[in-house]
């Protein structure tokens, strides 16, 4: 076990201030007092693991990440269950995906033990920030940047791994169904590209289509496959699922361009356990427009750690739109899956999968 050096802030947020900040934290703007940091160099490997007061970084303007974008991240949540215990949901799956992202971006791979250790050590120091409101959680953002001072294009020989923690409410403001823009202009990921890696660059490329969506009154974008623009891949930061009239649930298969969502995988397994038919098969966008209009597809939802399960009210594109169900409220299968998943994540439901880690403080 690697020892983390713990350096506590001398100016901690008071309980009163914290309460005010956590009353309605929204998403990603409120941060805890500390952060985890581990350094890497080719000579020393991963070293200098510590928990320190949250503070700005000092990096050289020639640092490689600022020029060539070697950056990967993860997103997971710490939950507080009814009894007050703090849980993590499948954090080892995040560690494994983080390592896979590092390989694709040719970055130093962080061992799982360090990934989990950094999160647990940070939680020990900042556990007061895990909300007890069941609508909220503590979002954890592990990420690695390359940090060599060099303008040549090559794999960097220095890296910095950091974990930030941020108490959050729902990802989407309001709790109704979201309208989603189907981008026919832009794609997110091509075969052989970085679609399966959780890297900042993918998000940078999604911001213009995101703007296009906003111009059409949509808060999210749906991307189609880059080859034929025929099949549904996923949304900018969430996977997508559809519910058919017979109650079966269908989602596009993983094939290199879709991010391997842990929420996606959990819903597939949980749904099967609940007796639902869960199908992974290519979903053509034309078929969805037709089937939703004909009432053959009755529900659609986005899924991911930040969004959990968010109902999709309608798809919009240049040639028109189509609603799922009544276009406003979450359907029964969406709600059933959401309730089951949330109960499991908070450690309030039996966990036959061994997914829930309780964090000992
Ligand atoms: C993070 C992410 C998801 C969701 O993954 P989870 O593990 O469920 O949080 C889906 N798509 C993209 C592009 C993502 O970056």
Automatic annotation (TrEMBL):
Keywords: Amino-acid biosynthesis, Aminotransferase, Branched-chain amino acid biosynthesis, Pyridoxal phosphate, Transferase
InterPro entries the UniProt entry points to: Aminotrans_IV (IPR001544), Aminotransferase-like (IPR036038), B_amino_transII (IPR005786), BCAT-like_C (IPR043132), BCAT-like_N (IPR043131), BCAT_family (IPR033939)
Residues with the N6-(pyridoxal phosphate)lysine modification: 198
Pfam families assigned: Aminotran_4
GO biological process, one term: isoleucine biosynthetic process
Pathway field: Amino-acid biosynthesis; L-valine biosynthesis; L-valine from pyruvate: step 4/4; Amino-acid biosynthesis; L-leucine biosynthesis; L-leucine from 3-methyl-2-oxobutanoate: step 4/4; Amino-acid biosynthesis; L-isoleucine biosynthesis; L-isoleucine from 2-oxobutanoate: step 4/4
Reactions mediated catalytically: L-isoleucine + 2-oxoglutarate = (S)-3-methyl-2-oxopentanoate + L-glutamate; L-leucine + 2-oxoglutarate = 4-methyl-2-oxopentanoate + L-glutamate; L-valine + 2-oxoglutarate = 3-methyl-2-oxobutanoate + L-glutamate
Family of the protein in this entry: Belongs to the class-IV pyridoxal-phosphate-dependent aminotransferase family.
NCBIfam families, alphabetized: ilvE_II, PRK13357.1
Function: Acts on leucine, isoleucine and valine.
Protein name, entry field: Probable branched-chain-amino-acid aminotransferase
Organism listed in the record: Bombella intestini
